[in-house]
Protein 1
Amino acid sequence: MNNRTVYIISGPTAVGKSLISYYLAKRTDGEVVNCDSIQLYKHMDIGSAKPSEKEMDAVTHHLYSIVEPDDSMTVARYRTMALETIDDILSRGKTPIVCGGTGLYLNSILYDMRFAESEADVERRAELEALAEKNGNEYMHQYLEALDPEAASRIHPNNIRKIIRAIEAFEYGKGVLDLSDCPMNPDYDFRFIALNMEREWLYNRINNRVKRLISEGLVEEVQGLLNRGYDPSLPSMKGIGYKEIIGYLNGEYDLVDAVELTMKNTRHYAKRQITWLKRYDFARWVEINKGDTVGDIVNRIIDYYG
């Protein structure tokens, strides 16, 4: 396989990653590989804003709706599936286009990471404490955010003890080495695009998207998940949009408040995603401006790399 080009299309939620990846795939004879943690799950189509059936029929999409919501999905497991998928796409002479904004999943593709199972909780705790001392509280809070957004939303970034405990609870002993100890994955020629737009415009798009998801049936989707017996404490059910609607269905607040809370939490998440992406000094930032067509944006992405 001579061509090792792999596009990475990332950016904050609601910036248009899925649509741009779709049209980039059409231009480059590509196939899209999901890198969004919630879009991996079956029965969670509306709240995770998966690509439409029409888009998936026109361009091959991988790693969407592949596991049940109560299935255990680790970063190590995702990495194995994603790299196997990328290699398969390349072997057929096509272009992989990785689409998504889940930070640790991106890292697992970009870096030659090693995954190991700690012998005891105390060992893993020592690793996390050393990681915190080296990189700081904000880094660890972003780490937790990528694993468990719900836990991160209720733990202050300065409460490093709770952050570490939350990471332990989610990982069950599965650890990822610090990126400073991980070289870039040498098997691929990454073309990393970070999409962004003016903050107020992005926030308006987020608010409008939440309203659209409600009109498309998000409440009914969440009720259906609960009816299937999926526990609200599952990591999948703690995704933004799902946890807020669960609160509404449990009578904690009315639907108007649930919508406002979803909008607020999504805006905060988008801000944290942008902060995370700024850590990649090799990313090419593409600013989307009002009036740009999808074709304009795809042309700029392709032109970036000649």
Protein 2
Amino acid sequence: MTEPRRGLGGQRCAPGGGPGPGQRGRTQREKVLVREGCCREEARARSGGGAPPEPGAGERAELGRLVAAVRARLVRAGALGLRGLPAAARARAAPAPAGGAPAVPAGSSSCAAARPAAGAAPRPAAAELAALAASIEGCTLCGLWRSRSRVVFGEGDPAARLMFVGEGPGAEEDRSGRPFVGPAGRLLDRMIRAMGLAREQVYIANVVKCRPPGNRAPTPDEAGTCLRFLRRQIELVAPELIVALGASAARVLVGEGHAVGRLRGRVHRFGEVPVVVTYHPAYLLRTPADKRKAWEDLQLAMRLLGLPLPDR
């Protein structure tokens, strides 16, 4: 005996696609719909098509392809020493919020110079600096990360008129995560006080954020890799004047490879920001005779800022 086929919703269909016993009493339209369902199921069974696709199956398949693409990007980024997608890729991948507002990428790359998305309300410089500092905590863009203990980002007034830029962290800075806290830092503090300012009133940063082994000078590649972060710090603080401490800072900010003695005594520029070059405090500890020259450079900086000069 032939088992009657079942149509959509489990209805029993008589051989030939006609209505089964349970279909009597239905309207003509219902009978047509049932017959059409039986015929479609029979055709699907003959063609080996199986069950109809579940609702949303296409969307899930597309989502799976997107996830696989993102995973592949992360693997490639990891091979390059990065720990996240580039900011542009995150912006493309982030879904747009309801209402058509521009999407703001969540989080930030381990070495991305964090910026607000286009159209987003500007954040205070302090918040932007904190976001930038957090974004480079795990930076591996150059080889200095292999020997560092801490990333030394920078500190001070996020709206400072005066910014000091040194070479790189030393041993004490590497341990503490703060710039200029060793013997050279204590001399810098005295230099700042001689200008009639407090350390908390200026902003202090370095060319590189990780300590070079043995306190050597950073290589051009290391300094060039870290320049994006220093440049962003300068953009956010927007100082009226930068004092470059030592040859490495002068080389990056002024773009000249001359000795400090040939660069000091005049005003240079980093973009639109005036730059005064002077000796690094660590050099002054080794060569006290040049402290008078450094004081002359600081007085030049004070005149540019309109600060009163001491009577001495």
Protein 3
Amino acid sequence: MHILEWHDFLAEKPQICALTVGVFDGVHRGHQLLLESVIRRGQLPTVLTFNTNPKKIFRSFSGDIYSVKRKLEIFETMGIQRTVLIDFSQTFRAMDGISFMHVLMDKGMQYLAIGNDFRCGYQQNIDAQTIQTVCEPCGCSVEIIQPLLSKGEIIHSSRIRNAILRSDFIEAEQLLGRPFILDLELFKEEKDGSFTLKKSGFLIPPDGAYMLPVYYGTQLKYAQLTIKENKIWIHSLNTNNCV
């Protein structure tokens, strides 16, 4: 998968592509519908996403479910061929939505998949229906994907965060479409043997002791993972049986 920054994307020669835009935190089952729609088009399936979750800028935020690296791995596994990473800078967030759409069409976008609640542009000034009326007369097909429900409620990243924060990993898995993974690459080991986040902004389950498989690269072991005050201890590693 080709990965490039927004400024490199703007400098690149236009290429016909199918595209979707979003934060994609967790790359949950609802997100997967967008990605699958883009991949089915077969026109250089492309994702535009962010280096930093914009929600961190505007309000208090419990933390990202996944790192950018983890999201990129999932995109590639699903069949996305190109990802553009956007820095949510003052310049970028001052761009109005219609201008943003025209930039994407000028860079070759001929198909766009978005959720029915999608908004973009300065102060989120355009919605999915407006995007459709702007793009389709210019020859860009816009598909508005309806929300995916689980137990009668829309699947949102915030719903997954809430499940993780109450240690409901069964619901988190149902919404994600895969088990929740706490990526230890985001942590550094301290002198007392604990692990702490290298930088803030990632979601950690609540304090408690958890029995779970732990992956060291491709090697699977089992452990008791203890979380206390945003520090993690891993105990009782065993390669044969779950503790």
Protein 4
Amino acid sequence: MGKGALLLTLILVRSTSLFASGAGASAAAFLKIDPAARPAALGGAFSSYSGDPNLISYNPAGIAWVEEPSASLAHSRYLEDINHEWLVYAQPYKKIGVSAIAVNFLTVGPMDGYDAADTPTDPVTSSDMALNIAHAAYMGFDSNPVFKEIGAGLNLKYIRERLDGDTAAAFAADLGVLVKPRVSGLNIGLAVQNLGSRVKFIDEGYSLPRRAKIGFALKRRLVGIQGFPSTLSGEAVFPHGEDAYLCAGLEQPVDKRVVLRLGWDNRRDIGSPFSFGLGLMLGSLTRRWKDIDLDIDYSYSNYGDLGNVHKFGLTARFGSDSINSGSFGTIYIQ
């Protein structure tokens, strides 16, 4: 394995990549990397949030609460010329829900190549790509004593991995449910990810990194900042063939335009398990573009002697009026 791919595996996913060998090897390890800056700053504990287009990669049910056409992109650069790009667009429709499309793209620059006898060869490059298409909707319950709203979502993926001249591909699906009970500020999320075909590379097949997760997000005033409640989130994640792990996040606005973020992920055994981040709510920058609201997000993670990872994101919401929240309607239960 090239040094760049090895570092990517060690630093980011702690799992066996497509190009490793042995029983239980999994493909498409890049799907375990947080693609967007906001969730990365929260330690990945994002599956119980709602209304953010980036939820297509965490819990597709959450995009049902996107109220305006929205686009989000992110960029990060890792060691050994590893670049990670993310782009998502979500479009709400009246009465039928919210659809979204996203591209997750990772490239590794020229790295040392080796043949089967471990003899050095010409440098090689590699890339990973996942195309996502999702749809979600939610339903309200007017008089139910337990549930206020319940949403469901489906995300379909085309996954392609390329190492120099060889290519492998697969299809997969994510399923998600998001529940808003009648507890003020509480969301409960459940998602199952990467259910799909095996990836066949040359003569061997590898399974996708399937996982299930359950979590919560609770919006409450936890610190003494008047009018700016915190959001506390936590998740238990159960990867197929690997140990379960926990992650948690805290998001705290300090005024109308600045949000501080802290995350924790107990998978990490290199560097610090904590991550940090910042969100800037810029709003409309000019009169000409008054119907476009912009947010800038940043996250920071430390991997000890292997260095730091900085992720930058930009989210734009188009239109000053809400089209729809993806609701099918309201059920009245007496």
